[in-house]
């Protein structure tokens, strides 16, 4: 009611979201969601279609406007609407105040383009709406209340056509087709910035639940978080992510309770489709997350398989303190600037969660991915990190076989450490089957398929990951790598350049471009890109390498790299350099080091273009045989 009163006070003018929040919720901390729900409620009460409104128009990026004709009149003298012979009389209760009647035009009298932005004029200007003059200067609060009452009374008369067909039946609203959505970061309304991890964790959980639905494309966390605090409109976000709908909301956490407000919005029109508030005890928070996901699936009318329905309706219980520690762990693990220090911090929280609830499967999955990250980033020797990661992943799956995160962690261990090719693929397939929208699983499965020489399959998996997580640096970079391994050099360059447009300070894209330039014999460009990558990484060798290039060109540059390169630190790249120099002996020696230490770089030798000069040699073929790849070199199927 207060929202409608505020709109009537400024009838015909655009009232901004901030104005409405200040007027209706003064001295109360709320988000825009409260206003959206209020407007949605008004539209339902008035039978107003937001796509073709006759009462309240949405002016994108600005606010709302009451567009129904509003006529002020003295008490007892209700002006007749031009669209009907008489209007009902509504007594405001005081003869000294004018009354205001808003009338609904018939559909054929509806003004064109009512949602077009309109610049608000001076406060005392009398706007003409549908030919009816409005005189707002003399309005008072009782008069505005009369406006509201009059509008509601008119629902029984002149606006009946909104509800009824010609045959007298209610016209059913055809829901929009929704095949894709994004869950935007839930807003933290707890009044404590330290609770940000909790709101982010609830966002992640909702994404994870919805990601299990195979017929729905759900944007992954990384790309969703890109819009945290964004000022972009929902239609623009929808276009950026190419989704049909947006889920947004807020989280308020008390000592033992949590309240979540969620709403579903059609992205293209900013049309609010559904909203609901949930409140539960913290120990039932997992069931709450599942309930929200179930409600959303019902609203978008997505068809669930029996298995998907089972996963969404599982009954979960977790110790609230363990849940809190686990959320803190995932908060740190998801940091964009991932370092060994952050991995240790995440691991500590996951281990605390397990200490409080030894049956909490997701916390074990967190332990597994933390140890894997420590092994990859150098925070822990791989031969120490891998057994601990495997143990945690196996425990997680024993407690909950439906965890895609744990299947992916186990797949990565089987692939990169055990060299169990069939076992790794089985785990990747299980992960993507359980959670078809889990971009990380598609990303790592693509890595596996490149290693196996199955480049067509690798391209499909990384393109799926890109569709789910278009703002992920890792996904963008690996897509370029798949194109590079497929010898699609121009496409690879374009992909790396797109990555740099979004992440101009990322050294990985420059190094990838240098690899492509080398294969295209564009050595000046390769030198520039390689030096830029080294500079961004603050590599002390950059000056010496630059001098070598000036003296002896790109071959001199490569020879200097070979001289200063620490082969033990990165034997796979050492093999890269020696192969470009046609030094088979040293290239193979470097690959043998990578093989003996089971380093990740040796896994991709089947299709690596930089190794083409030594690919047909007996030593190279013998190494491929010992690694035990199931596909022969060059097989791209």
Task: Indicate the structural class.
Answer: alpha/beta
Q: What portion of residues is helical?
A: 40-55%
Rough outline = globular
Which sheet architecture does the biggest sheet show? 6 strands, mixed
**Measured on Cα atoms, how large is the radius of gyration?**
31 Å
The CA-CA distance between the termini, in Å, is 64 Å
How does this model look, in words?
The protein has 637 residues and is of the alpha/beta class. Among the domains are: 2-162, Arc Repressor Mutant, subunit A (Orthogonal Bundle), CATH 1.10.10.10; 180-317, 3-Layer(aba) Sandwich (Rossmann fold), CATH 3.40.50. It has 25 helices and 13 strands. Helix 11 runs antiparallel to helix 12 and helix 12 packs parallel to helix 14. The model is unreliable at 78-140, 148-172 and 632-637 (pLDDT under 50).
Put the structure in a nutshell:
With 637 residues, the protein is an alpha/beta fold. It is built from 25 helices and 13 strands. Among the domains are: 2-162, Winged helix-like DNA-binding domain superfamily/Winged helix DNA-binding domain (Arc Repressor Mutant, subunit A, Orthogonal Bundle), CATH 1.10.10.10; 180-317, ABC-type transport auxiliary lipoprotein component (Rossmann fold, 3-Layer(aba) Sandwich), CATH 3.40.50.
